[in-house]
Amino acid sequence: MGIQVNGLPFNKYTWIMTHNSFSIVDSPPLPGIQRLTFYNQEDTVTNQLRNGVRGLMLDMYDFEDDIWLCHSFRGQCFNFTAFQPALNTLKEVETFLTENPTEIVTIVIEDYVHTPKGLINLFTSAGLVKFWFPVSDMPKNGENWPTVTEMIQSNRRLLVFTSDASKEDEEGIAYQWRYMVENESGDPGMKQGSCPQRKESKPLNSRSASLFLQNYFPTYPVEADSCKEHSAPLVDTVNTCFKAAGNMLPNFVAVNFYMRSEGGGVFDVVDKMNGRTLCGCDTITACQVGAPFGSCKNIAVPSKSPGTNTGGSFTGYVQFARSASPDHFPNCLLVLSFYFLLIAILL
Known about the structure:
- The protein has one domain (10-346): TIM Barrel, CATH 3.20.20.
- Strand 6, helix 5 and strand 7 form a beta-alpha-beta unit.
- The chain is of the alpha/beta class.
- It contains 10 helices and 10 strands.
- It has helices at residues 45-50, 86-99, 118-125, 148-153, 166-171, 176-179, 223-229, 232-244, 265-278, 331-346, and strands spanning 15-18, 55-63, 66-70, 82-85, 105-112, 158-162, 174-175, 180-182, 211-215, 252-255.
């Protein structure tokens, strides 16, 4: 874990989280079905994790007698909004954690699963229970979490949160807003000079929850727009939310198309936040293990994040797969089609 430095409590770090991590451009639809939904990411979950993402947002639904990842509405998964069984993605997480024994991953579930014991059985089938951080040991009144060193040594390296409060007692899966505060998602969370709390969340400046999830993605995702969104506006919004949260930096910054920016992007923003928190330096790469706080290496701060790109491919682990059709539905056409179909279903 490159940013561990002095092994501080887990809640003293900032991590990149991908919004709708499974909603990937070029993901094949069900046979004979034209998928009609929005896309939020460009590479596989495995590649996201390899590139430094440590938080995944997954929408889970009952579908076809199984639990699927689906980008849908009205709490129901349709064949034209379905992606794949959740087990496939969770197995990617299991492989990553097995191959990287010093890494910690957080999963936040938008939960529409009603099958009794469905979620815990799913994680058991994926082989992830061996990494499970138990609800019983999670701080419930704003206390510090264990240090990352302790979490690694005890192999409690998977944190899972659900939006369904009943799952905490029934399945031992933590109810998200008992442990973290969160700002509003979509366009309201990106409005300059504003950082409203999500309605389910405690106030952002509450100290009864020790984790802070900052959403930073538009209601309707557009790949090209994310380049600008992840530059100066992201920095401004982080500063605004820092003040709204009572001078508390976010532990997770959730974004679409995480590799895109016109500069350092989300990688640079997170590196700077971790540098300030962990060692008092302008970036995490200036920190020195064992050195007094504020003792920084004299290095040039990079102007670009690793593999930052605006043209459709990057120099990370896996090249983006591109569809032959331009833009995978133009955004305005997709919005209109999506809502015409929604109206038809509602009627």
